[in-house]
Amino acid sequence: MTSITRRRANSGITALVLSCLAASPILAEALALPSNAELTFDRTKSEGSYAAPVAPYSGGLLPVFDVNGRVTKQAYRIAQQGITPQQILSPIEASLIEAGFEVLFKCSDRFCGGFDFRFATDVVEAPNMFVDLFDYTFVTARRSHSEAPSDYVTALVSRDSTSGYLQIVQVTPEGATPLATERSNAIVAQVSQNSLQQQTGSVGPQLEKIGHAVLPDLTFETGSSDLGQGPFASLEALAAYLLQQPSRRVALVGHTDAVGALAGNITLSKKRAASVMQRLGSAHGVPAAQMEAEGMGYLAPVLSNLTPEGRKANRRVEVVLLNTE
Fold first, then answer.
1. Average pLDDT of 191-216?
2. What secondary structure, in 3-state letters, does the chain show?
3. Which domain holds residue 305?
4. pLDDT at 264
5. Which among 188, 203, 222 is the end of a domain?
6. What angle do CA 111, 73, 28 make, to 5 degrees?
């Protein structure tokens, strides 16, 4: 039985950051974890309850589904410098979709509700789990059954300067078995530039499936917010998706490398996102009401800024699906 309630939390700060897409292998009926993921916490209640977040914290309340069943809570530490929350989460999302789950809700720190979301959510205590309020990602997924209660899985991912941290909560009905965890050597590797070069025609499916996508073919002059002349296949694909789905809204989110001060990079990244938004409207006829522009500066890298390749990968614009239904 599932019901929706709202949970209060302490007020506090919020932060700017979004996560980024990483390609990963799909493992059926198992959650794909990095090969060096170390289990730090493992507890199961055969008859328990869990408040699964299904929307961002807003107005002093966190909307949740109260679900009952066998509650399995695990936490992991991934000892690898520079690995991002989305790098850890992407193969888990793919595993869930392969196993028949649908993503009900996904957010990253500021868009979750920042400090307030974190402290209204059930989180394993430190040192077994660590959450950076400026850099975390959360997802809730559900698998429905025709004659039995649904399964629920939530994943919370964050990092510090040396490691990634992952919390997985699974709620399964009586007699059902939680998804196993599966280690994969491929996941522990840093995301390559090739993995960011998604098929531009798949922007719409990516948004529907995992909520965000990189626009990989955009070009800007160095230090400038002016979008190149194009044409850009990714914008054509995104425009087609938005015009076919007039109820959908997206955020265009600019990102930079770590060269220069944060304030200047946030300003530049937002101007670049606004330039993309303007092009979608002027050249492709996308209504302004379906879009907004944000800038994250260098707060959400996908690769290390210590190499030219990493800095190039970090300079990007992403599109994020904002609809919650």
1. 67
2. CEEEEEECCCCCCCCCCCCCCCCCCCCCCEEEEECCEEEEEEEEEEEEEEEEECCCCECCEEEEEEEEEEEEEEEEEECCCCCCHHHHHHHHHHHHHHCCCEEEEEEEHHHHCHHHHHHHCCCCCCCCCCCECCEEEEEEEEECCCCCCCEEEEEEEEECCCCEEEEEEEEECCCCCCCEEEEEHHHHCCCCHHHHCCCHHHHHHHHHHHCEEECCCCCECCCCCCECCCCCHHHHHHHHHHHHCCCCCEEEEEECCCCCCHHHHHHHHHHHHHHHHHHHHHHHCCCHHHEEEEECCCCCCCCCCCCHHHHHHHCEEEEEECCCC
3. 193-321
4. 92
5. 188
6. 85
Helix axis angle, 233-244 to 203-210, nearest 10° = 60
Q: Same domain for 311 and 201?
A: yes
Residue 265 tokens read as: 């990079």
What does the pLDDT average to over 160-181? 90
Domain final position from 133, 166, 188 = 188
Check whether residue 108 and residue 241 sit in a common domain. no
The separation between the first and the last C-alpha atoms of the chain, rounded to the nearest angstrom, is 20
Ranges 176-190, 225-239, 249-263: which has the least confidence: 176-190
Closest CA relative to residue 211, chosen from 98, 107, 113: 107
Question: Using alpha carbons only, what angle is made at residue 180 by residues 122 and 148, rounded to the nearest 5 degrees?
Answer: 75
Does this model's pTM top 0.70? My answer is no
Kindly report the number of other CB atoms within 10 A of residue 321's CB atom.
21
Q: Which residue's entry shows tokens 């800038």?
A: 295
Q: pLDDT tens digits for 105-157? A: 999 988 999 999 999 999 999 999 999 998 899 999 999 988 788 999 999 99
Q: Which residue carries 């076919």 as its tokens?
A: 244
Instruction: For tokens 């307030």, name the residue.
Output: 116
Same domain, 274 and 172: no
Let me know: does 30 contact 181? Beta carbons within 8 Å.
Answer: yes
pLDDT(51) > 90: yes
